[in-house]
């Protein structure tokens, strides 16, 4: 089955710096890669996602890159702010086709990001 | 904005007791999931449900677990005889035509 590895497990940056979190996956059939932000005691919230037919996607200060050949994808947060502090999870899903979804999410172990003011 | 809602927010139960966790997915969503997260660990898939039947389940989802969609709105997870290791946060999620999954706020289950 699919296995998702995520690094680092903890990341501490100064406010304004960039943060990069990396994930690798094992199943080449996976074709959808979301990133979730989870604040303490709250639900995971989708912040950005990418499908396997795209190499990069950006949304304001957040970007995700995907390398299908190497089976890895990364989250990039620029100009970090204290409110970015949270646990970030990457995930992989297979079975996504146009207009539909068939698969469950396999999550990485999470990265605890601390942004120091 | 529509939300997935879960009840209760916290459930304390004695070992060996049955618990039912409830979820109301976003209306018109078609795919439903249960995940669990043991404190400090990653989110783990339990089961997916589509068209009134289980479409996929993980190794965690053994005979002690069952899911049901008793009416058009609720989606429940039952644990028949709880064990200490079932203590976790349980998240319900739903999708329309995918792929974005919307998570509920979770039910914290504590087995004592």
Topology:
The complex is a heterodimer of chains A (117) and B (112).
Chain A: E1 4-7, E2 10-14, E3 19-25, E4 30-38, E5 45-51, E6 56-59, E7 62-67, E8 72-77, E9 86-94, E10 106-107, E11 111-116
Parallel strand pairs in A: 2-11
Antiparallel strand pairs in A: 1-3, 3-8, 4-5, 4-9, 6-7, 7-8, 9-10, 9-11
Chain B: E1 5-7, E2 10-13, E3 19-24, E4 31-37, E5 43-50, E6 53-57, E7 65-68, E8 75-79, E9 88-95, E10 102-103, E11 107-111
Parallel strand pairs in B: 2-11
Antiparallel strand pairs in B: 1-3, 3-8, 4-5, 4-9, 5-6, 7-8, 9-10, 9-11
Q: What does this molecule look like?
A:
The complex is a heterodimer of chains A (117) and B (112). By secondary structure, chain A is mostly beta strands. Helices cover 0% and strands 56% of the residues of chain A. Chain A has no helices and eleven strands. Chain A is globular and about 40 Å long. Chain B is mainly beta and 112 residues long. In chain B, 0% of the residues lie in helices and 51% in strands. In chain B, the strands form two sheets. In chain B, strands 2, 4, 5, 6, 9, 10 and 11 form a seven-stranded mixed sheet that branches. In chain B, strands 1-3-8-7 form a four-stranded antiparallel sheet, with no helix packed on it. The radius of gyration of chain B is 13 Å and the shape is globular. The N and C termini of chain B lie far apart (36 Å). The relative contact order of chain B is 0.34. The chains are: A mainly beta (117), B mainly beta (112). Chains A and B meet through strand 4, strand 5, strand 9 and strand 10 of A and strand 4, strand 5 and strand 10 of B.
